[in-house]
Amino acid sequence: MEGEMQGLAAAAHGQQDGAVRASRISGFEDLAFGSLAGMAGKFVEYPFDTVKVRLQTSGSQVFSGTVDCLRQTWQNEGFRGFYRGLTSPLLGAMAENAIAFYAYNRIQSVIRAASPATPADAPLSLAQLLLSGALSGSICAIVITPVELVKCKLQVENVRGYGATPQAASQSAVRFSGPLSVVAHLLKTQGIAGLYRGIAPTIGRETVGVGFWFGTYELVCRQLLRMRAASDPGARASKEDLGPGAIILAGGCAGIGYNATSYPIDVVKSLIQTADVRAPGQQGAPGQQAAIARPGVLSTVRAVYTRGGIAAFYRGLGITLLRAFPANAAMFMTYEYFCRLAVGLRGRGARQPAHA
Question: CA-CA distance, 327 to 35, in Å (whole number)?
C-alpha cells in the first residue's frame, strides 16, 4: 500500500513537472513548434485524407470501398492524385496546430488563474484539459474553414470523371488549377462568405475533436506515468521522462480519439463544402457554372441518413483511423521533442559560467 501511494505521488509530481515545463515554453515557441508538428503530421496523413474525403462525398456507385478508392485514384491520377490540393491544407495544418497548441496552453493558464484553489504549477483535471482543448478547437475552426473548403473541392472535383467515357470525362474535366483558382472563384461568385461555407460543422468538429485530442493524449500520458511510478516507486516519473514509444502511443491514441468522436460531423462538413463540385452538369469554366442549391446542416444530415442510415455517417472511417495513429504520433513527437530541446538548451545556457 505504501509503495502504491509513493507511486501515485511520483506520478503526480511528474504531471506537476509537466505543468512547470509548459509554463517555460513561450507563446512564440508554442506557435513555432506547433507549426512544425502540423507540417510533419500533414505529410503523413494527406494521402489517407484524400481517400477519406472521396469516400465521404461519393456513393457506393463510384467507390465500393477503401481499396476500390485507392485503386481508382492510382489508375486515374497516379501517386500525385493522393496529394492533390496539398498546398492549402499543409499551410492550414501549420496554422491550425500552431494556434491549437498556443491556445491550449494559454487557456490552461486562464483556467488556473480563475481557480484559486489550483496552484500555478499543479496539473489540471482531465475535465479542465478537455475544456481547454475544446475551446482551442473552436478558435482553430475560424482559421481552417477556408483551408478545409479549398482542400475538399480539389480532392473531389475530378472524381466524376472516373469510369466515364472519353467525351463525358472531358466534360467533367478539372476546373480548378490549384488552391488560388478555388479562392478566386469563391470570392468572385460568393464573396468572403463563400470561403466560410461549412463553418458551423467545422466548429462542431473541432470543438469536439480537439477536446478529445488533447484529453486523450493527457490521459494516456498520465496512465503511463502511473504505471512507471507503480513499477519503480523511487524513480522519477515526469512527462519529460517518457520515451519515444510512450509519446508515439499517446499521440496515436489522441488521433484516434479525435476522429472517433468527430467523424460524423466531418462527413456532414465535407458534403456541404463539396456540394457544387459533386453536382451533375456543372461543367465548363467556374464563372459559367449554374447556381447550385446550397444544402444546410439539417438537410445534409437527413440526406446522409436516408442514403445509408447511421453507417453512412461512418463511411471512410477505417482509413481515417488508419492514418490517424501515425500522423498524430508524428505531430506530438515533433512538438514534444522540440519543447524538450528548447528547455534543455535554456537550462544548459543557464548552467554555463559567464565569460569575463
Answer: 14
CATH number at residue 78: 1.50.40.10
In a domain? residue 214: yes
The pTM for the full model equals 0.78
Mean pLDDT value across the chain: 81
In a domain, 98, yes or no: yes
Reduced to 3 states (helix: H, G, I; strand: E, B; else coil), residue 197 is: coil
Residue from 222, 226, 223, 244 nearest 235 by CA = 226
CA angle 102, 103, 104 (to 5 degrees): 95
For 280, which DSSP code?
T
State which residues form the domain around 93: 2-168+175-279+292-347
Block residue for cell numbers 458551423: 200
Q: What is the mean pLDDT of residues 36-58?
A: 86
- Short-list 97, 79, 73, 214, CA closest to 147: 97
Burial class (CB in 10 A: 0-12, 13-18, 19+), 167: exposed
Nearest Cα residue to 129 out of 213, 7, 249: 213
Q: Does a structural domain hold residue 160?
A: yes
Counted domains in the chain: 1
pLDDT, residue 163, reads 52
Which residues make Cβ contacts (< 8 Å) with residue 81, sequence separation at least 6? 50, 73, 74
